[in-house]
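Lab notebook, design round three. We kept the backbone fixed and only want residue identities now. Task for the bench partner: fill in a sequence for the structure below.
Input C-alpha cells:
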C-alpha cells in the first residue's frame, strides 16, 4: 500500500493503478462501516484508492472540525488489511490554497434535512468530492447509506454535471446492538452511548408498523419521536419521512419513503435512516 501526501504525488501514483479503480473517500478515524466500503470496492475493481481528509469546508463555524477524532496509524493499518492500494492524505493547504474561490453546489435536495440544519455543509461535501474525483479519477466511488442524503446529493451532482464515474451506495454497518457505526461515537459518555440505541429501536418499531400496513407518515414520525423521547439524554433534531428521490416530506406513503432522523446527545449529533419499501 502506498500513501500519497500531496495532490501531485496522488496524480503520479494514479497513473500506475490498474483499471477499473474503486475509490472510498473518508474523513478517517475508520471503523467497520468504512472498511465495508473498501472491501466492496476491492471486490468490484482491479485497484482501490481511499482518501483520509477532514474537510474543513463541510463543517460549520461552531462545529467540531478542530476536535474531529484522528488516528492515522490505525486507519492505515485497517486500509492495508482491507486491500487498499493507495491512500490519499492531502493537507488542507494543498486542497484549499490561499485564494481558493470555486464551489460546486447542488440545489433543492441540499436545502432539506441536513442542509436545513447545516446550511454550508453540502457545498463543502460536493466541492471536496469534485476535487477528489478530479484528482483520483475513479471508475467507481463508494458511499454509505448511513448518510443517505449525502449519497443522494452526490449521485445528483454526478448526473447533473456528467461526471465520468459511477456512485455505489453500500448498506449501513451497525454495532451489535444496532447503533449505526460512526467516528463520532468516541464523543459519547457511556450513559449516552447506551441511550443511543433508541435510534435503532425506533427505526425497527417504524419498520414493523410499515410492514403491518401503516402508511400514515405523521403517525410513523410520532411513533419514532415518542420512542426516542423516553430517553431523557436524547434531544431530537428532526424525524423525517420523505420522498426517496426529492426528500419532500410526505403525508401518506404510497410506494416507498426515506425515514431519517437526527438526535443529539450533548453536543454529539447522531444520524440514522432506513428505506421503507
Ligand atoms: P465519513 O468518514 O464519516 O465522512 O464517512 C465516509 C464514508 O463512510 C461515507 O460515505 C459514509 O456514508 C460511510 N459510512 C460512515 N459510517 C458508515 C456506516 N456505519 N455504515 C456504512 N457506511 C458508513
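Proposed sequence:
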Amino acid at each position: 500500500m502506498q500513501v500519497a501526501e500531496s495532490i501531485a504525488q496522488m496524480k503520479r501514483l494514479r497513473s500506475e493503478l490498474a483499471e477499473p479503480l474503486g475509490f472510498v473517500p473518508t474523513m478517517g478515524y475508520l471503523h467497520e462501516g468504512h472498511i465495508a466500503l473498501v472491501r466492496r470496492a476491492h471486490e468490484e475493481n482491479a485497484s482501490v484508492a481511499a482518501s483520509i481528509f477532514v474537510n474543513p469546508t463541510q463543517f460549520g463555524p461552531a462545529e467540531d472540525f478542530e476536535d474531529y477524532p484522528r488516528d492515522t496509524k490505525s486507519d492505515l493499518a485497517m486500509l492495508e488489511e482491507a486491500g487498499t492500494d493507495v491512500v490519499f492524505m492531502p493537507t488542507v493547504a494543498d486542497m484549499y490554497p490561499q485564494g481558493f474561490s470555486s464551489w460546486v453546489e447542488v440545489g433543492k435536495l441540499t436545502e432539506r434535512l441536513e442542509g436545513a440544519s447545516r446550511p454550508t455543509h453540502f457545498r463543502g461535501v460536493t466541492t471536496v468530492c469534485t476535487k477528489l474525483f478530479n484528482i483520483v479519477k475513479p471508475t467507481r466511488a463508494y458511499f454509505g447509506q448511513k448518510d443517505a442524503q449525502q449519497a443522494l446529493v452526490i449521485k445528483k451532482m454526478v448526473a447533473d454535471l456528467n461526471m465520468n464515474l459511477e456512485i455505489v451506495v453500500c448498506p449501513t454497518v451497525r454495532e451489535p446492538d444496532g447503533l449505526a457505526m460512526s467516528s463520532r461515537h468516541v464523543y459519547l459518555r457511556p450513559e449516552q452511548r447506551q441511550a443511543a440505541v433508541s435510534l435503532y429501536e425506533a427505526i425497527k418499531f417504524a419498520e414493523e408498523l410499515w410492514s403491518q400496513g401503516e402508511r400514515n407518515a405523521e403517525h410513523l414520525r410520532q411513533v419514532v419521536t415518542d420512542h426516542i423521547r423516553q430517553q431523557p439524554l436524547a434531544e431530537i433534531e428532526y424525524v423525517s419521512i420523505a420522498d426517496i428521490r426529492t426528500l419532500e416530506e410526505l403525508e401518506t406513503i404510497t410506494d416507498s419513503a426515506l425515514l431519517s432522523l437526527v438526535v443529539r446527545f450533548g453536543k454529539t449529533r447522531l444520524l440514522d435512516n432506513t428505506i421503507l419499501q
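Keep this in mind before ordering anything: The chain has two domains: 2-170, 183-276.
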